């Protein structure tokens, strides 16, 4: 395994020597169980990354694996391998306390239930007294989700350096630390989110980073999920009703132009609501929904082609959303012009930031839903479908998703990073790497390596296929069987 990793290191050096070749500097390695993957890539890559003045980013599939690398593997390597290096674990923004949001929530205390009010106050006090660093995972007790969602850091509601608490913000403090360590422990979701924003937003600059994607067999499904989009019509209607209350502080604090824009935005909300209700009604009346499971029904469009009549409705909704976001952009510019004179401008940027974030998400969902010509370089279309939940007053959700992540990974990951190693115990199909390389968008000539597991499965293992009465897909049958087993 160690030799194997030296090979990988060498290939990275060759690919990145002075001129970057057209192929991305990526290696794919299948290393069977028991080969010591973490040691195998860490021991050669940590000194190599330091020598090249690059950050080594170790990306795993889950937070639990991240913690294993952070609290067990890397401390062991530092103690026993004689390597001197620093490391830190990156977490999503949502794991950190946002003082500005907590203050806003406290201001709304009339609308809060008693226990929520108290819980938010305790969090604020502990943070202010220095008894807690603002990381959800280091709080002395589990913070309930419904409380945490009101006070955590959220990308669309953060005015960044304009925030009055920027200097003490737990998220930005943690983010700053990442620029000074040798090794960053991330997970695939965070890496994909960062790279699809252009990189360097949460993680260090990707061009100055060597990436290791451990558990690389999860990369395709993570990427597909990441680039999929959906939108609940009912949730949007509910949110649209809240817009006017959100922008009231802006009307009170700026000039006539702001008031005019707020009025314009309000009239668009009425129009949008009407169109959404009509679109929902049309979808319910015309689409042939089929029951999948529970009370949810789905209508999948053949070849991912949204029907023309549905596109007509969706385009109107998308156009109104686009107009609303333009108005919001103008409001944001007025606030920018008053940053020095208005002490509350930071908080007002948070409001337009929240609106911008939501508009962008909705616009993407509706445009992916109608953009039926959207195909990857292999001509593979997006999948598109509509869900209806009969238990939730016929809630309608529109969906679209790529079925192949190769193009996106090439554009946002392989072409951007300094170099990368993808590894897992299960990468090959029928003994070959071709299928995997195609799935992740890497050229067939990508260097690949195989490290066999030291375990002799053939002699020590038994494959036992039980003669089951029910197919694994027959959920009800298996459930009945389990109940019978429990009773007997
Ligand atoms: S900088 Fe952003 S995340 Fe941090 S406290 Fe301010 S608003 Fe919240």
Structure description:
The chain is of the alpha/beta class and 488 residues long. It is 50% helix and 13% strand. It has 18 helices and 12 strands. It has helices at 2-16, 37-51, 63-80, 99-107, 114-128, 145-151, 170-178, 188-196, 219-227, 233-240, 243-253, 256-286, 308-336, 345-370, 406-414, 434-439, 457-460, 475-487; strands at 26-31, 55-60, 87-89, 183-187, 209-213, 229-232, 290-293, 296-300, 382-389, 395-402, 419-424, 448-451. It has a 7-stranded parallel β-sheet. Strands 6-10-9-8-7 form a 5-stranded antiparallel β-sheet. A hairpin with a 5-residue loop joins strand 9 (382-389) and strand 10. Helix 4 packs antiparallel against helix 5, helix 10 (233-240) runs antiparallel to helix 12 (256-286) and helix 11 runs antiparallel to helix 12 (256-286). The longest helix has 31 residues, at 256-286. The radius of gyration is 26 Å and the shape is globular. The relative contact order is 0.15. The mean pLDDT is 88.
């Amino acid at each position: 395994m160690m030799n194997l990793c030296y090979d990988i290191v060498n290939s990275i050096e060759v690919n990145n020597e002075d001129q970057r070749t057209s192929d991305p500097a990526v290696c794919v390695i299948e290393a069977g169980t028991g080969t010591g993957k973490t040691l195998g890539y860490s021991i050669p890559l940590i000194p190599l990354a330091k020598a090249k003045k690059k950050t080594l980013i170790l990306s795993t599939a889950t937070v639990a694996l991240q913690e294993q690398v952070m609290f067990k593997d890397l401390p062991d390597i530092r103690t026993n391998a004689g390597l001197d290096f620093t490391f830190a674990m990156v977490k999503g923004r949502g794991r950190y306390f946002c003082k500005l949001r907590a203050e806003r929530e406290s201001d709304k205390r009339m609308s809060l239930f008693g226990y929520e009010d108290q819980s938010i106050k305790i969090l604020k006090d502990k943070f202010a007294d220095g008894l807690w660093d603002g990381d959800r995972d280091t709080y002395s007790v589990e913070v309930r989700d419904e409380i945490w969602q009101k006070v955590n850091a959220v990308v669309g509601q953060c005015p960044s350096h304009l925030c009055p608490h920027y200097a003490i913000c737990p998220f930005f403090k943690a983010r700053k630390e990442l620029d000074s360590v040798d090794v960053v422990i991330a997970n695939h979701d965070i890496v994909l989110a960062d790279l699809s924003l252009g990189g360097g937003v949460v993680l260090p600059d990707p061009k100055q980073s060597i990436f290791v994607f451990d558990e690389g067999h999860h990369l395709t499904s993570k990427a597909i999920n990441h680039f999929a989009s959906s939108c609940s019509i009912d949730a949007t209607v509910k949110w649209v009703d809240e817009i006017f209350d959100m922008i009231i502080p802006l009307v009170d604090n700026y000039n006539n132009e702001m008031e005019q824009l707020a009025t314009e935005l309000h009239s668009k909300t009425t129009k949008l609501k009407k169109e959404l209700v009509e679109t929902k009604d049309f979808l319910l009346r015309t689409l042939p929904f089929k029951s999948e499971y529970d009370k949810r029904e789905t209508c999948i469009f053949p070849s991912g082609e949204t029907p023309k009549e549905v596109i007509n409705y969706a385009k109107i909704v998308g156009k109104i959303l686009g107009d609303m976001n333009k108005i919001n952009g103008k409001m944001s510019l007025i606030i920018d012009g008053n940053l020095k004179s208005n002490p509350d401008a930071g908080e007002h940027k948070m409001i337009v930031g929240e609106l911008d974030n939501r508009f962008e998400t909705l616009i993407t969902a509706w445009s992916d839903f109608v953009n039926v010509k959207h195909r990857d370089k292999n001509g593979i279309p997006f999948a598109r479908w509509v869900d209806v939940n009969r238990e939730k007053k016929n809630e309608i959700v529109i969906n679209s998703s790529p079925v192949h992540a190769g193009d996106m990974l090439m554009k946002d990951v392989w072409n951007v990073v300094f170099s990368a190693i993808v590894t897992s115990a299960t990468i090959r199909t029928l003994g070959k790497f071709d299928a995997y390389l195609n799935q992740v968008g890497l050229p067939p000539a990508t260097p690949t390596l195989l490290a066999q597991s030291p375990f002799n499965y053939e002699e020590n293992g038994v494959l036992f296929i039980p003669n089951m009465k029910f197919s694994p897909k027959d959920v009800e049958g298996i459930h009945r069987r389990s109940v019978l087993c429990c009773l007997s």
